[in-house]
Amino acid sequence: MKAIKTEIEGVYIIEPRVFGDQRGYFFESYSARDFKEQTGLDITFVQDNESKSRYGVLRGLHFQLPPFTQSKLVRVVKGRVLDVAVDLRRNSPTYGRHVSVELTGENHLQFFVPQGFAHGFSVLSEEAVFQYKCDNFYAPDHEGAILWNDPQLAIDWRLPESDVILSDKDRCHPLFSDFVSPF
């Protein structure tokens, strides 16, 4: 695997080595040893999650509040999504900035989102199966979020707004300007 640094410190695009032939393909989707060697991070993932969504679904921008903050390693098994991480670390030179990557079942890329970031994705294909590893358990009483279409963040979700499908909860998160970061 190869860890590619993004313009925001601590956020990586992970490119696995894929071995393919006429039978199909094989790749190691995660190796703690290689992840640590490539990123310098010693992460212990404790929970794996999977979601299936249809075109236009936008999930985000979510995070877990201390002491239940989460780092995530995300990937798409089937379909195509735009995955986004927003820096919520107050003392970071990139506070309030975001980075995004297109993850597909074909490119096998993964995206590492560290603690102190909001995370979200939009489904660009007919449907997508999305998997992610977390380094802390989900704690529903410690959920946090920022409004997905906050003008200050100016995220291009690569969907017409009329096609965006949100949960009721994701429709009414606070704006970034009203957010007081605990990170």
Short description:
The protein is mainly beta. It has one helix and 13 strands, in the order ββββαβββββββββ. A six-stranded antiparallel sheet has the order 1-2-10-7-12-5, covered by helices on one side.
Termini separation comes to 30 Å
Q: Strands across the major sheet, in which order?
A: 1-2-10-7-12-5
**Share of helical residues:** under 10%
- Rounded Rg: 16 Å
Main β sheet profile: 6 strands, antiparallel
Low-pLDDT parts are none
SSE topology string: EEEEHEEEEEEEEE
Bulk shape:
globular
Secondary-structure-based class equals mainly beta
Question: Quick one: how many beta strands?
Answer: 13
Strand content: 35-45%
What is the count of DSSP helices, taking H or I runs of 4+ residues? 1
In round numbers, the mean pLDDT is 97
Provide an overview of this structure.
There is one protein chain. The protein is mainly beta and 183 residues long. The protein has one helix spanning 32-39, and strands at 2-5, 12-15, 18-21, 24-27, 47-54, 58-64, 72-78, 80-87, 98-104, 110-113, 117-123, 127-134, 143-145. A six-stranded antiparallel sheet has the order 1-2-10-7-12-5, with helices on one face. It has a five-stranded antiparallel sheet with strand order 9-8-11-6-13, with no helix packed on it. Strand 1 (2-5) and strand 2 (12-15) form a beta hairpin. The two termini are 30 Å apart. The mean pLDDT is 97.
